[in-house]
Amino acid sequence: MIARARRSHPELPHRWIICDACRGEGRRDHPAFSNGITSSEWEEWDQDDRENYMRGAYDVGCNDCGGSGKIAVPDIGRCTFAQKRELVLERRALEREAREDSAGERYLRMMENGGYCS
Ligand SMILES: [Zn+2]
Predict the structure, then answer these.
(1) Are 3 and 94 in contact (CB under 8 A)?
(2) Are the CB atoms for 4 and 98 separated by under 8 Å?
(3) Which tens digits make up the pLDDT trace of 36-45?
(4) Ligand 1 centroid from CA 115, angstroms
(5) What's the Cα-to-Cα distance from 69 to each of 22, 27, 29, 45, 110, rounded to whole Å?
């Protein structure tokens, strides 16, 4: 799990960018299909499932942009000192989460290797 350092900040002075997670669509394939579906899976589906899929019935709203397709990135030059400080704190929290995630993964890998650090 990679923590995204980007969060929408419409409450700050900002400019809008197109959400790169959904490319501005506001919707993405259901996470279960994020790698696409294999042709054998496709064969197993009945006609209704295929039609639902093609209609996008299994799509989910994009988490990153909340379905709007765009993200408000803070315009640092127009932020107040307090707003910049908030952003720095948030960035640090995200980085800490990312570090903890990777520490957890290292631990799991170590256990898979019989307890030895590789
Ligand atoms: Zn999005």
Answers:
(1) yes
(2) no
(3) 768 888 888 8
(4) 40
(5) 7, 8, 14, 30, 40
CA angle 44, 23, 30 (to 5 degrees): 30
Distance 61 CA to ligand 1 centre (A): 8
- Range with the poorest average pLDDT among 3-7, 63-67, 91-95: 3-7
Cα angle 7, 93, 2; round to 5 = 65
Cβ atoms within 10 Å of 56's Cβ, excluding its own: 12
Q: Which tokens is 65 given? A: 């942009």
CA 40 – ligand 1 centroid, Å: 29
Q: In 10 A of CB 28, how many CB atoms?
A: 19
Q: What is the pTM of this model?
A: 0.52
